[in-house]
Each structure stands twice: as C-alpha cells, then as structure tokens.
Design goal:
By secondary structure, this protein is an alpha+beta fold. The chain has 4 helices and 14 strands. Strands 3-6-9-10-11-12 form a 6-stranded mixed beta sheet, sandwiched between helices.
C-alpha cells in the first residue's frame, strides 16, 4: 500500500474525503491509503467466509458484514475495511460517522501478497486494541491455511495456525462457530 499523499490527515479530514470518494481508503497513523483491488481467489474466499458465517449465525443476534463496512479503532485512529466483520448484539456506530462501526466482535482478513505483512503486523495490532474484538481470523486464499488470534481471559491473545491436518474445522470461539474447510475454500479450483 502506498500513501495517497505524504501529509497527515485528521479524522475529520479523512471522513470528508471518504464521503466524497468513490474509492475506499484506510486511515492509518494519519496517512490515507487507497484500497487496492483483490484477486478473484481473494474475492471468492471472502464471499465464502461471509456466507458460511451468515448461515451459521442465522438464528443468533449476530450480523455479518462485507468489506464495504468501515470499522474504526478509536484508540489508535485507524479506519479500515476488513474483508468480513461480525457484530454480535446491537451494532454501534461512530459519533462522527453513522456508517462507521466501532464494536466488531470478529474480524476476518483474507491475506494477499501485497498486504500480508501489514495485515499480520500493524493492522492486527490495531484490531487487538478494540475492546469489542474477541477474535481475528487471517485466511490464506492460495492454500488451506488460517490463523486465529483470540483474546482470552485477562486480555491476553493467543494465536493458532491451522490447516486441515491440524484441525478438522476452523473453530471460532468468539462466536461459537466451527467453519468447514470445504465451505471456506469452496470452488477455488474453478479459478485455476
């Protein structure tokens, strides 16, 4: 990701730019970054995860939101668009922008070669600062491999790399859902 400009932006400036823009941007440490388009595999895996979560949570007070949903981490000033966001209980939105969610429960990022280092590092650190976030799922679209980052009692975080040989299902303790590997990676073979 490349910053749009070298100047730093305030939260209000960023929100004004976002409202006027047809393209999505992230705000990280005062810098605005244009969101790059993803690969077909990235898009398919994102949709697969969202569909599987939506089906699993159909009868529960949780909602599943796509990458069009902006999330703010107030304590760090980051605004971003996770690939999939789950909110359990009533959704709360930012007082400065009614379209910006502030209380996600689970965040899913589908990794790409251009964003993987950032998603695993700085972005994950921002997500961990959100009190409402109980779990972050990082999904590798090119192979059946994920990482769960889960907040446990006392606020500690544990990370678990998973693949089908180590785990028959992808357990998401924060929302009490187990995803099937075949659901997450459905039809990726059709993409070549």
């Amino acid at each position: 990701m490349e910053p749009a400009r070298k100047t730093r932006f305030t939260e209000d400036e960023y929100l004004a730019i976002e409202r006027a823009s047809e393209q999505k941007h992230e705000l990280i440490d005062g810098e605005i970054y244009a969101m790059a388009g993803g690969t077909p595999r990235h898009a398919l895996v994102s949709v697969n995860v969202a569909a599987a979560l939506s089906n699993a949570l159909r009868d529960r007070p949780c909602i599943v939101l796509s990458s069009d949903q902006r999330v703010a981490v107030r304590s760090t000033g980051m605004y971003t668009y996770p690939d999939v966001t789950v909110v359990c209980g009533p959704a709360r939105f930012h007082e400065k922008d009614a379209n910006t969610l502030v209380n996600p429960t689970l965040i899913v990022e589908v990794l790409s070669s251009g964003t993987e280092t950032h998603d695993r590092g700085a972005k994950l650190a921002h997500y961990r600062r959100l009190d409402s976030v109980k779990e972050v799922l990082l999904v590798v679209p090119e192979e059946r491999r994920v990482e769960t980052h889960r907040r446990i009692d006392g606020g500690q975080w544990i990370s678990s790399p998973l693949d089908p040989t180590s785990a028959p299902r992808i357990e998401l303790a924060s929302i009490d859902v187990a995803l099937a590997w075949d659901d997450v990676y459905a039809k990726v073979d059709l993409l070549g």
